[in-house]
Amino acid sequence: MSDKKRLFLIDAYALIFRGYYALIKNPRINSKGMDTSAIMGFMNSFLDVIKRERPDHLAVCFDKGGSDARNEMYEAYKANRDETPNAIRLAIPYIEKILTAMHIPIMVKEGFEADDVIGTLAKKAEKEGYQTFMVTPDKDFAQLVSENIFMYRPVFGGGYETWGIPEVRKKFEVTDPLQVIDFLGMMGDSSDNIPGLPGVGEKTAKKFLAEFGSMEGLLENTDKLKGKMKEKVEANKELGLLSKKLATIMLDVPVEFNAKDFEMSEPDVTEVTKIFEELEFRRLTDNFVKAFSIEAMAAPGTSHQPPSTNKGSNNSLPLGEMSKGQRGQKTISSSAGQGQFSLFGGDSEPSVATEVYSSRKTIETTEHFYQTVQAGIGRKLFLQNLLKQTSVCFDTETTGLNPLTAELVGIAFSWEAGKGFYLPCPDDREETQHLLEQLRPFFEDEKIEKIGQNLKYDIKVLAKYNVVVKGKLFDTMLAHYLINPDMRHNMDVLAETYLNYTPVSITELIGKKGKNQLSMRDIPIEKQTEYAVEDADVTLQLKEHFQNELGEANIQKLFDEIEIPLLRVLADMELEGINLDEAFLKKLSVELDKDILNLEKHIYEAAGEEFNIASPKQLGEILFDKLKLIDKPKKTKTGQYSTAEDVLSYLAKDHKIIRDVLEYRGLAKLKSTYVDALPEQVESSTNRVHTDYMQTVAATGRLSSNNPNLQNIPIRTERGREVRKAFIPRDKDYVLLAADYSQIELRIIAALSEEENMIEAFKNGEDIHSSTAAKVFNISLEEVTREQRSNAKTVNFGIIYGVSAFGLSNQTDLSRSESKELIDTYYKTYPKLRNYMSEQVDFARDNGYVQTVLGRRRYLKDINGRNQVVRGAAERNAVNAPIQGSAADIIKIAMINIHKILSEGSFKTKMLLQVHDELVFDVYKPELEAMKTMIKSEMEKAYIMKVPLDVEIGVGDNWLEAH
DNA sequence: GCGACCTCTTA
DNA sequence: GTAAGAGGTCGCC
């Protein structure tokens, strides 16, 4: 890098938009319901640039009031851009506030776009001998690139690329970056509403530039063109010249480049931290500190003093002193000078940095009394005291995350905020068992309420020691899931959000996961105590917080009668596991391998070379660049060719290679995801597969399953279905029983909407899709064709998801207008269904949430949003969440009741799996008839509505047969 | 080794 | 159009 001074000019809006849309699928929402994606996205990029580049000079440039000049030239200019999303408009003042607090120069010029401001400044700085980096993803800026002016472009997937003259030449196939203007003028830009020349796209524009060098060159030489293109270009000369003007970044904005104004200076750390905390940003504080500490190094004289700390001042407790000694060295308050805090050189420790600047409380700034209880008289007294309590929070510490194999390391207890006890477990398993026998009276006391975060885990761990946790339970994770299902529920987040407290981080304690990660057992007992008791203490405090909120949102009943009892049910199912026929899968794997190799051979032959078929990138290049199977291949959002199923299926009938690729894909997926992966997941200690049900992940109230996911085992295709044969009963005395709710979601929507036409059909036991077809097409049930039924079925499902004519036509052979007609007739047939749907949307608009039959809520923050797309999604959620969620509620009730009957009746039959509308059981053969009746009846009467629920029972020697 | 992206599996 | 989890590739650190 040359020793020239460097200026970074940041295109604020471009980075804000990019940040916002990058997170659109998974927007960051804080506890106040504010969408902070745009702020977060922008700040991440911004701090990243500073951290990477340590610029001497920089400015962030905003637009204000749009470009007067361009609006004058062309009134449609940027007119039909989508309206700025609300979240972005709200973000701007925050971003300005943060930048101001950071003392970052902000450039705005009323009546000019940021492009023009940046362009003008870049050129002026160049004259002063600066190297300028324009930080923007917007390719329009390429026209400004020169020997000393560069584009600094964030790329998807992280990192940046610098575009100098060679890069621009290559990207745009031009000799001079100025030709980028001609390029943009020719092909136009829909997002900026630059019209461009009709019929000219990227390819043609490049061709024209290569031949004529510029827009003017092209327009003077239209006689060299032929056919349609000639006519079009000649007819649009004016438009071409205008487009070029619109695409030209102006270099005469009345702004001055005074180097002094662009110098980096010391930020107001307290203020920045305050704003971040208000927004509930956590990791960003790390990044901020990191980015600016480096700058402190580069510019001696600036130093960053932390806000006043009272660290350690009131720590008179023994444990506090221990930790003070451990941590003192890392904190700035104990270091002599500013150099100490430099993170220069790469050995940075972000978590430490956060601590220094955060005003959040930590174990070091909070008075606490955490005590280690060793064997002997102390423990005896502790146990006596423990049994006197009515409500106790506990937390187990183990050697790992798998409760089947993890060993207890210690147990923490707390029943008063700020206080708690830790009982370390001996390394020896038998001695630990002995300790647990002493604790058994506590755990099995029905009268003592047990509080915890993710109690399912602790209950499973203790079950392995034959200890049953009895009595009332309060799980803070479940409570928060009901309070706000769209947020995350891990304890660190909850503590920071609700208690303004940062708990000791587990990674700080045992290291990042991977080769060097320690086990809790390797940590000194004093440290274990701090960490474990803090968890119990924090959880106890969270409980106080959440208890009130449950009442306020009317979800107490749902919590007490569904989620809490279900936790025990799930723990039992997970501990039970399911038997897997490994030999069968092994055989299947060999067969698949043979077929895959064969397909590979055919594909390589057709392609004329060997390549990685599993790489969408390589596959796309072979199919569309080399074999040119199609003129205009569809691209993904990252600019790769799309090789997705629907794209390829469309081509399949004409090309054998495509059919082979699709089959290859199917088989490879099957093999890697299921046939080969499942045997790996067999738990050696039980010889069974134990999935982990997540009770707080799905925003609608459904469960999810992982390690392995047993809720997506193939069934649709013949080859895939084979995998189900590998799920088998415990032994020859057992069979598998599968019980499925038939059309539960449609029944729910029929019942909730009180749509008589549909209710009657269900009551009469009609095939609902045929019945719908008969009504919609106005024919008798007997006259319904397969195609009509199939279309009716698609609409029925579509309704549940909030269908559009567009979506429907994509899924059927129907055209867009036929789809629209079908939907219209459908609504006429079932008028109350439509009413119900709009009622849900209205309810959400008025209340901000929708709810299920049991009152489970889902908050829809975008329901009154201005952005069409985002609001549309919220409206579909308003329709779908109560349906999907009510179905989830109902099967949960059934599971709880069935589990109760099975355990109280000491049946040998066990419930093993839940797949949203299906339950799978390992049934002891002598109990089979009783089970069939009991399960069907319990599931059907779990929740009584105006539509009867119907359950289909299947029995077999494997999961497939049971269907 | 980690994360983004793409693709594919289920209800 | 709703709700999930997982595997392979590829670029980044």
Automatic annotation (TrEMBL):
Enumerate the spans annotated as DNA-directed DNA polymerase family A palm domain.
Answer: 720-927
Q: Which reaction does it catalyse?
A: DNA(n) + a 2'-deoxyribonucleoside 5'-triphosphate = DNA(n+1) + diphosphate
Q: Name the Gene3D superfamilies for this protein.
A: 3.30.70.370, 5' to 3' exonuclease, C-terminal subdomain, 5'-nuclease, Ribonuclease H-like superfamily/Ribonuclease H, Taq DNA Polymerase, Chain T, domain 4
Q: Where is the 3'-5' exonuclease domain?
A: 370-551
UniProt-listed Enzyme Commission number(s): 2.7.7.7
Record-annotated 5'-3' exonuclease domain positions: 5-265
Q: Does the keyword Transmembrane apply?
A: no
Which EC class heads this enzyme's classification?
A: transferase
One Pfam entry name: DNA_pol_A_exo1
The entry assigns this protein to a family as follows: Belongs to the DNA polymerase type-A family.
The name this protein carries in UniProt is DNA polymerase I
List the gene name: polA
